[in-house]
């Protein structure tokens, strides 16, 4: 069996219409937005129209089931990824894994395959980090807390609890989305690499062995707004100069406290009052740091805090920060790495075992069940941008590998 590539393409393009911006060609489907929930309801309707059972749990996860009464109580093989996007994102990030999973169960149904255990396709909620990230996967694996639900907010100050209520969800119901470990046989995720390695090397498949940890801060440097023409340079409390100094320190921090897998990014910054003839009295910005080793992450956290404290003293600023999230690095299940590699060989696909510098839903499932993450190449390594693209032959190869893996886990080997 092979996936129907034309149908897979058509479904991906239809999903990309939700949140598509005709000016910059990006997709704006942030977690718990109206566009996000319109896409979720559309996918559930698609699944129901084809005879599948679909539902949304209290965390906003969409769950599509291929099952029958005689196997419904058995542990399920789960295919999952996310449906939300970053602002001005692309059409493959996250959604490929969900729609390829949907295509897998479509093919199995068309071939009247008799399963020995259920297959669930899950479109997780809020993976991209609007509220800290991976709300849906955390809920499913029992890692979501009441404190997180009630205190998390996005960079614009919108509360997670308020946005959930606006979509008809009771925030506390998200705690009931937890799956018991005995309900899960295994978890598979197909994703674009979001980096250049596979594309540059001409490799069809990445078999992920581990996923980088990440922490996110929201930082304030507070100085004094003043006239840009009359305040002497040496007498200013210029918040922007504090941010500029910190940005200059990043290479040093990584060299002294990081590794070759360390990434530190200032992704959003806002100057206040934000007027050309006024010295910035405050700058609010984000810091996102990643590494494959949690001890290194802890050292990076200390180094960033020390650097910002010293910079604040130098420029006569106040320094405040809030740690929005901390996601520990995770190893994919070794036997699943071997299993996926074997299936790639059986399909004559060339592959590379590799780490993931980006976070994925898989890192939460790896704590509760056998978990495997499959990459396909991203053209020129581009992701989180409108020109994110993967060639259709790579989409087809990755989807067929996913289908092969799921078949092997959901159907007993006949003696």
From TrEMBL:
Protein name (Swiss-Prot/TrEMBL): Zn-dependent hydrolase
Record keywords, A-Z: Hydrolase, Metal-binding, Zinc
One GO MF term attached to the UniProt entry: hydrolase activity, acting on carbon-nitrogen (but not peptide) bonds, in linear amidines
Cofactor(s) the protein needs: Zn(2+)
Gene3D superfamilies, alphabetized: 3.30.70.360, Zn peptidases (3.40.630.10)
Cofactor, free-text remark: Binds 2 Zn(2+) ions per subunit.
Protein family membership: Belongs to the peptidase M20 family.
Keyword Hydrolase: yes
Keyword Aminoacyl-tRNA synthetase in annotation: no
Residues annotated for Zn(2+) 2 binding in this entry: 93, 128, 384
